[in-house]
Design brief:
The complex is a heterodimer of chains A (383) and B (272).
Chain A lengths: L17 H24 L7 H16 L3 H6 L8 H4 L6 H34 L2 H11 L7 H34 L12 H28 L5 H32 L4 H11 L1 H23 L6 H27 L25 H21 L9
Helix pairs in contact in A: 1-2, 1-7, 1-8, 1-12, 1-13, 2-5, 2-13, 5-6, 5-7, 7-8, 8-9, 8-12, 9-11, 9-12, 10-11, 11-12
Chain B lengths: L6 H4 L2 H14 L2 H11 L8 H4 L15 E6 L8 H10 L8 E9 L4 E5 L18 E10 L7 H5 L5 E3 L5 E3 L9 H5 L6 E2 L6 E2 L5 H4 L6 H5 L5 E5 L6 H8 L2 E2 L11 E4 L7
Parallel strand pairs in B: 1-11
Antiparallel strand pairs in B: 1-9, 2-3, 2-4, 5-6, 7-8, 10-11
The chains are: A mainly alpha (383), B alpha+beta (272).
């Protein structure tokens, strides 16, 4: 029995734009980067020492801008704080305000503690405006004796331990935001939070690999091969878990062939062929899988391993961005009549255009560059 | 009943909602019940069959009325008058729809065609011409907010801007709405949209400002064939209660558990 296309009259527009694609993407980068830092601080993965500080500051820089795409998306951004002032306990979106703020606070405190010795040293040694700046950063606490540092280390570890489940909640919650929308068969699955969590880890680790290699190149410093190799292993593992879950979700939908499977299969085979089939699966999942499989081989020369890992990192970042796109935008390409599809005209300009999206992605990197000028991102032996 | 659109009568909808919202927050339900006695001096009416609105006096006046909405698809002929009435009454911007009418055509070869009835009505419209000999059956389905008892739009609203009134009407406080459009995503029926003028979520309110004055929603009043019926479900003698008791009714997307209060006579499973 055939059907002619029909779209509900209020459905022609994709309501959640590229900004809502960026929001879970940036949140995922925050969670994944934090976990890299936590692997060093909590699980004593000393091999990750060269990137531990970078990972923590990267998480903070991205976290600082995680809400910006949401603000740009809101039709009444001036009322954004209503989410905190008049929150609804039944709304997943409302809960985000509290989770985000808790996580941001945790990150700020942890970054401050990690960099406190250097801040105090500079506050003591520098004069003029620079000295004043570091004295303000020190918050009047100049004690950096061995005893004080031991206490700092203990608190840092404690915060990192709290931060691990917090980052899981942060990224898993973003998945829940979509997974709990029962009106949308492409979103409504219990696996969604787990899929977001796994891909968040992959994207965060990939971001740290790419940033580390890029900054080493900029500083004309040879990257720590063992660190990169370890990160590649973590990336490989998290990519395998993330992609397996994504595929499981799809296979489950296909095998179950529920009432709306015809819509989803048409979505994938006709509307998301490039962004899903080619970018997310082929370029973003299959290619980095093999690249990382090769790069994690111990006998591979360091230079080749570094290149392969960097390339895989870039591809995984593309994969996760494509995955966010396919979920967020893909889920709005079909009408709730389940009889027709709509287009998403992506514009360059405007509050929710491509240029604004590029600026949002650039701002955390700019913040990281500034942070690198103010705080020592590298271990003292390397600096 | 008269179709009132002037400012004096109309106490703009926003104003009504604001005061209602404030009222709901401050006053206990029992006090509200007392208030409604004043607001509903009587539900007298004599033309309920043609206008589709209830005329019976409620039996239990100490409680807020429980409203319901019934669509008798057997009667709808796609005049589109309800669409125009809604747009005029509620100042709905072009391109947005608080209500619409779908045409379902089942062909003998098994094909189902669904399309939209224009506001000018089905007759003399440019809707695709169909050879009657090819048609197995066809009917019109008016749509608007289902005012669900377990409304997912209310559930996801992060700031309590979307809520259900004591009378069972799902409403939006446009002074609270932040325009995140989560409710638009959560509504399974596609009835919500972001109003380009107010930049807030918008949808059918059953003409709340009218029904609280004992008038029928504009679409109900405008329907020349009584296909849209509005009234009190808590009154067993109301037109809507009698029709629901008499004919089998269905709700849309029942499997989602939203418990819509808008019911349909004469539709089958293909209507989404």
């Amino acid at each position: 029995m055939g059907e002619t296309p029909f779209v509900f009259p209020n459905d022609p527009n994709v309501t959640w734009s590229i900004m809502i694609v960026l929001y879970p993407y940036i949140t995922g980068l925050v969670s994944g980067a934090f976990v890299v830092a936590a692997l060093y601080h909590v699980f004593r993965q000393e091999v990750l020492e060269p990137v531990a500080r970078l990972a923590l500051v990267t998480a903070l820089c991205f976290c600082a801008f995680a809400t910006l795409p949401l603000l740009l998306h809101l039709h009444h951004p001036e009322r954004a704080f209503n989410i905190m002032f008049t929150p609804s306990a039944t709304s997943a979106m409302s809960v985000f305000g509290f989770i985000y703020n808790f996580y941001m606070l945790l990150l700020v405190v942890q970054v401050w503690l990690v960099f406190r010795p250097e801040i105090v040293e500079r506050a003591n040694s520098c004069s003029g405006a620079v000295g004043l700046f570091y004295r303000v950063l020190a918050l009047g606490i100049r004690e950096i004796s061995d005893g004080a540092r031991r206490i700092d280390a203990w608190v840092i570890r404690l915060l990192a331990m709290i931060g691990i489940p917090a980052s899981c909640v942060l990224s898993g919650y973003v998945g829940f935001l979509f997974g709990a929308v029962k009106a949308n068969p492409w979103w409504s699955t219990a696996l969604m939070p787990v899929v977001f969590l796994a891909s968040s880890l992959a994207s965060g680790i990939a971001a740290i690999i790419v940033l580390y290699l890029f900054l080493c190149w900029r500083r004309r410093v040879r990257p720590d091969a063992e660190c990169v190799r370890a990160l590649s292993r973590y990336l490989w593992g998290s990519l395998i878990v993330a992609v397996s879950l994504e595929m499981l979700e799809l296979v489950h939908m296909a095998y179950e062939s529920g009432a709306q499977w015809h819509v989803i299969s048409t979505l994938l085979t006709e509307h998301l062929v490039v962004s899903y089939g080619i970018v997310q699966v082929l370029i973003g999942s299959v290619c980095p899988f093999f690249l990382l499989m090769i790069s994690t081989r111990p006998q591979l020369p360091a230079r080749a391993m570094t290149w392969l890992s960097g390339l895989a990192g870039v591809l995984v970042l593309v994969q996760v961005l494509a995955m966010r796109w396919n979920i967020v935008v893909g889920g709005q390409l079909f009408s709730k009549s389940f009889r027709g599809f709509v287009e998403y005209p992506l514009h360059w300009g405007g509050r929710e255009g491509l240029i604004a999206a590029a600026v949002i992605l650039a701002l955390p990197l700019l913040a990281l560059w500034v942070a690198g000028k103010v705080l020592p991102l590298w271990p003292s032996k390397e600096a | 009943m008269t179709h009132q659109t002037d400012d004096t009568n109309g106490t703009s909808e926003a104003e009504t909602l604001r005061s209602r919202r404030h009222f709901l927050e401050k006053v206990a339900t029992i006090t509200f019940g007392t208030m409604t006695l004043t607001l509903f001096p009587g539900w007298s009416g004599s033309d309920e069959e043609s206008s589709g609105s209830d005329g019976e006096k409620p039996s239990n006046d100490d409680q807020p009325p429980v409203f319901g909405y019934l669509v008798d698809t057997r009667k709808c002929v796609g005049t589109g008058k309800c669409l125009t009435a809604c747009r005029v009454e509620n100042d709905v911007p072009d391109g947005c729809h608080r209500t619409w009418v779908e045409r379902y055509v089942h062909f003998k070869d098994g094909t189902v065609q669904v399309d939209l009835v224009p506001e000018t009505g089905y007759a003399d419209s440019d809707m695709a011409a169909i050879n009657p000999d090819d048609v197995e059956r066809a009917y019109f389905v008016p749509k608007n907010c289902n005012h669900c008892e377990d409304a997912p739009c209310n559930q996801v609203c992060p700031v309590h801007a979307s809520f259900t009134s004591p009378e069972g009407v799902t409403l939006i406080d446009d002074e609270r709405c932040i325009g995140c459009a989560y409710c638009v995503q959560a509504c399974p029926y596609g009835v919500r949209f972001i109003n380009p003028v107010t930049e807030t979520a918008d949808k059918c309110t059953w003409c709340y400002h009218r029904i609280m004055r004992s008038e029928a929603p504009a679409c109900v009043e405008a329907c020349p064939v009584g296909a849209r019926i509005f009234g009190r479900l808590d009154d067993p003698n109301s037109e809507i209660s009698r029709r629901i008791a008499k004919f089998p009714t269905h709700v849309l997307k029942e499997h989602l558990g939203t418990r819509p209060t808008t019911r349909y006579i004469g539709i089958s499973g293909e209507v989404t």
